[in-house]
Design a protein that fits this description.
The structure is a homodimer of 198-residue chains.
Chain A (H helix, E strand, L loop, with lengths): L5 H10 L7 H13 L2 H17 L1 E2 L6 E2 L5 H4 L4 E8 L2 H9 L5 E5 L17 H7 L6 E4 L5 H16 L3 E4 L15 H9 L5
Parallel strand pairs in A: 3-4, 3-5, 5-6
Antiparallel strand pairs in A: 1-2
């Protein structure tokens, strides 16, 4: 038998299905939620359902958007001739946080991963290629520095080169502030090979 | 400018207001939520608002409840003559998990804390005293082993004794599985003073 009310049990159970939220955390959150003012609970509840129902992909770059074009593609100040290719909207957000990149993006929503049966046609590559029909100066490949990300970067770079467009890959090396002794050998070798003359 | 859609920003902001959920976790949860099937998102959203709107306090013991009486007070098999006094519904739930306690509870929803201006009239003490008018054999005080919990226990025990009812306090000592060297001195002394003959 449940010690709590059915509503509470249901809420705890729903929260504990979220990633990284265990039974204890779900219980703590549930108690917090029922102690919140009703208008705040309503905001939370409607933000959840609203996000699910209203968010779609930008018809141009594939970023999350409330409308046809995402805020970045719709911004006349962004340089549409430079396209940074990323795997996910979160990667895009990470670069946006730097506030230094003024070009636009292309979100693949994945990476080529033959082991899991994800091929070039399963990511938004066709959409990228059709964007290259327009005026594009450079494609910057910013897929992750993982096996899948590198495979995807290689694949895309070949296609973009064939289209006669400049293609680059973000640098890989020791993170700023990184302590050499805590960094894996592959990264250390990458950093060595990618050394720049001072 | 926001990189994400307004809906996404709103969801992340709402989630990050929950305790223990930082910006990064909120972002991770938000992305997970929009990738969930719509019916699951609806369940989550309605569990949140449902819990807030429908949960009330059991009119007898103060536990969280969907109806007039909580499942424990409504259970004819529970021994209504033994009342365990706890500070919060979470403490109640902790004892329920043991599945060994067959009496009922009384939830104070707080503890006496003069430093924060919380006196006997700010917790559900009057309700406890009126329950003692009925047939009660024993009151077990299970408030926390903190200064406030102990103060509350002392205060209640005096009142219950005056009513001519047996009153007890849960034992305090070394936790089962606890390693002596990691336990604070106060607990060690408590365990020594509370030693039982074998």
């Amino acid at each position: 038998m449940d010690a709590y009310s059915g509503q509470m049990t249901r809420l705890i159970q729903q929260l504990s299905q979220l990633p990284g939220i265990g039974q204890k955390t779900a219980q703590r959150l549930a108690f917090y939620i029922i102690s919140m003012p009703e208008d705040r609970v309503e905001s939370l509840s409607s933000a959840i359902i609203g996000a699910k129902q209203k968010i779609r992909l930008c018809s141009c770059c594939g970023n999350l958007s409330d409308s046809e074009l995402c805020p970045i593609c719709a911004d006349p100040d962004r340089d549409k001739r430079t396209i940074m290719v990323v795997e996910t909207p979160r990667d895009l957000a990470a670069y946006e946080k730097t506030q230094k990149y003024t070009g636009v993006y292309h979100v693949l929503h994945g990476a080529i991963d033959p082991q899991r049966g994800i091929g070039p046609s399963d990511i938004r590559l066709k959409e990228l290629m059709s964007r290259l029909q327009g005026d594009v100066d450079e494609v910057i490949i910013a897929t992750n520095s993982t096996l899948e990300g590198e495979t995807t970067a290689m694949y895309i770079s070949r296609l973009v080169k064939q289209a006669g467009i400049k293609v680059s890959r973000i640098a890989s090396g020791v993170p700023v502030g990184g302590d050499l002794e805590n960094i894996d050998e592959v990264t250390l070798l990458r950093a060595l090979n990618g050394r720049v003359e001072l």
